[in-house]
Design goal:
Strand order of the largest sheet of chain A: 10-9-11-8-7-12-13
Oligomer: homodimer
Organism (chains A, B): Acidihalobacter aeolianus
EC number (chains A, B): 1.2.1.41
CATH architecture of the largest domain in chain A: 3-Layer(aba) Sandwich
Distance between the termini of chain A: 49 Å
Catalytic activity (chains A, B): L-glutamate 5-semialdehyde + phosphate + NADP(+) = L-glutamyl 5-phosphate + NADPH + H(+)
Largest sheet of chain A: 7 strands, parallel
Number of helices of chain A: 15
CATH class of the largest domain in chain A: Alpha Beta
InterPro entries (chains A, B): Ald_DH/histidinol_DH (IPR016161), Ald_DH_C (IPR016163), Ald_DH_N (IPR016162), Aldehyde_DH_dom (IPR015590), G-glutamylP_reductase_CS (IPR020593), Glu-5-SA_DH (IPR012134), GPR_dom (IPR000965)
Pathway (chains A, B): Amino-acid biosynthesis; L-proline biosynthesis; L-glutamate 5-semialdehyde from L-glutamate: step 2/2
């Protein structure tokens, strides 16, 4: 692994200088190579699936592992979308004259070497490689051992693209070992890796956060809230609250707790409960919620902390905005939280005071997403505060250096 | 220490919401309190100085420790400058409509709790507290044990200012123990501290980087270069090269290695060596340098890595731009590097390809500084790439969250 790191560091220098055209050419050729390699990709993937079944992998994991025609086509499509995104590298911001006569600005530069640690989905290999490449970073990709053959087949396509564009082969390295210790080693390679991005379940992300000596861009939990304010519009509330919970259950930006202002509990909760009942969402509530919806289960203290990732929703009636903000900042995971209101001052306070990576007014938490935010693509969502917060796109994989233009200025 | 962290976390929430007026009032009252407390500050400082002399502290350390009338006045002046800076918190950038009809932008928010670990200078207590306060962050200040009484006297003034502005007393906590273990404990308080800023000598910064489980904003070395290109103007070269080395010797942005294009060695090095000789700078050179300046010492491989912080300069003759960039990216510390040139294309390449926190054309490396860059004040200079790079001012002590404004939009 140490050698992998050194090779990545060398490749990163060349990649930082690479022109946009070369990076786009590599991405386009990778897309073509993937489309031309459908039979090989499926053959190698079948080996992984067979081994997975033999090892007794869960059906959900086998599903994530499988490369279908549609999924392969969508990998190629994803690459072409990244070709279409603006290259962030070299962009100069805020270049201005200062009293001494120098011009000072900031130029966007790649981070250097990015380590991606992920689980069964082979499409992450292509997505992550493409985002790192476009943002001028070398990448070291360490996928799950259960996807080893699929990932190696994808790696062949990636190498074809890099070679066609004259970019160093080591710009993207797909780690070829199933040895679990390789992850631990990668997490300690401070000198050759600049940032680690884990993608996968909570236990993976926890392990990476705990062991890494390298900064990690991550989010652990998505305990997201919608707060129905006193002044919320009824129809909008029903639409948004249903969408935020039910549009998809397993995603990090799905609502897990609904907070309702006491003045609206009686008129909002019964019709909302009826809509949830239609789609089979199980409700749990605080004592005040159960005064209005007596048949639902009681919510425990643990429920307020829980990311169900399932058709389950906890509901709490609060006195008003202060209690709602306090609940969110205390029990939430600083991911995405939304207020439904027509009150200007309360919207303004919610935006300022809720300490989450995305804070919304009158919108579904499910909109917290790189595509919806216009970033084009995302490598993940960060609930950390340092460096990147919220959906992380190409810009989140870059840094800025100062540039100074003078004509002989010195320090007095 | 755990309690200190919990109190800081609670204070941070109040501070994040604090209005600019309240923060400015606190800073102004701290300045007044410091001016009114000159006798007490000097009495307490005298206790530290006496104890320091008894412990045999070096004269340089005793000098840094001393609070003179001028230094106390400049602490108050520094506070008033920070009052005058724009409040970064709450500023919204890039708010724009997206196809779904939502508006998405980013709002600047405090990082939360900042731990500052520093050595003998008591003025850091005021500077760091003020920058953290203005940027809406709670701070935990852990100064050197040799400055304990001075720092506690300053802490009294800080508490006066916080109280006058109705801000929580725990917004700034000056750790009251001389116990060295307190630093280790602070560095492990992941849940209550968001970022650590070490200020002091290299051994302190190395220790903090090694032990911290919390992200650190730091720079270790300042091995800065000036490259004299084939097309550099002679008079400008002499002026800038002398300023970059001699304007101050002990600072991180002082030039430590001069690179000279082979075509200019014969005409530039003799007059430059004469100027350095006038002010007593000792020169060391590579073999090609010593063909022109035969009397100077040879430079060893180790010299190219060395931050002298003294009137010593290493000089290397290179074939041209490629070799210069390669030398800087290999031996430099990614701090500040400058090219002297009149060639447009080479200036452009140098700006793009040198991987340092500040990259300059025709300017002295000594200009790499928060005040010179218009940041108003700096808490330090970062040579890291994640989060903040280069001089770190108020903005570097903040993060950005996404804000979304809608009128009922949902995910399709």
């Amino acid at each position: 692994m140490a050698e992998v790191g050194q090779r990545a560091r060398i490749a990163a220098r060349a990649l930082a200088r690479a022109e946009t055209d070369a990076k786009n050419r590599a991405l386009s050729v990778i897309a073509e190579a993937i489309e031309a390699a459908v039979p090989q990709l499926k053959t190698e993937n079948a080996r992984d699936l067979e081994a997975g079944r033999a090892r007794g992998l869960e059906p959900a994991m086998l599903d994530r592992l499988e490369l279908t025609d549609v999924r392969i086509a969508s990998m190629a499509e994803g690459l072409r979308q990244i070709v279409g995104l603006a290259d962030p590298v070299g962009a100069i911001e805020d270049l201005k004259y200062l009293p001494s006569g120098i011009q000072v600005g900031r130029m966007r530069v790649p981070l250097g070497v990015i380590g991606i640690i992920y689980e069964s989905r082979p499409n992450v290999t292509v997505d992550a490689a493409a985002l790192c490449l476009k943002s001028g970073n070398a990448s070291i990709l360490r996928g799950g051992s259960e996807a080893l053959h699929s990932n190696q087949a994808i790696a062949v396509c990636i190498r074809t693209g890099l070679a066609a564009a004259g970019l160093p082969e080591d710009a993207v390295q797909v780690v070829e070992t199933a040895d679990r210790a390789a992850v631990g080693e990668l997490l300690r390679m401070k000198d050759s890796v600049d940032v680690i991005v884990p993608r996968g379940g909570k236990s993976l992300i926890e392990r990476v956060s705990r062991e890494s000596l390298i900064p990690v861009i991550k989010h652990l939990d998505g305990v997201c809230h919608v707060y129905v304010d006193d002044s919320a519009e009824t129809e909008m509330t029903l639409t948004v609250a249903v969408n935020a919970k039910t549009q998809r259950y397993g995603t990090c930006n799905t609502m897990e707790t609904l907070l309702v202002c006491a003045s609206r509990a009686a008129d909002i909760l019964p019709p909302l409960a009826a809509r949830y009942a239609e789609v089979g969402v199980r409700l749990k509530g605080c004592a005040r919620t159960r005064e209005v919806l007596p048949r639902i289960e009681p919510a425990s203290e643990a429920d307020w902390h829980t990311e169900y990732l399932a058709p389950v929703l906890s509901i709490r009636v609060v006195d008003g905005l202060d209690e709602a903000i306090d609940h969110i900042n205390t029990y939430g995971s600083h991911h995405t939280d939304s207020i439904l209101t027509q009150d200007y001052a309360r919207a303004r306070r919610f935006l300022r005071e809720v300490d989450s990576s995305s804070v919304m007014v009158n919108a579904s938490t499910r909109l917290a997403d790189g595509f919806e935010y216009g970033l084009g693509a995302e490598i993940g969502i960060s609930t950390d505060k340092l460096h990147a917060r919220g959906p992380v796109g190409l810009e989140g994989l870059t840094s800025q250096k100062y540039i100074v233009l003078g004509d002989g200025q010195v320090r007095r």
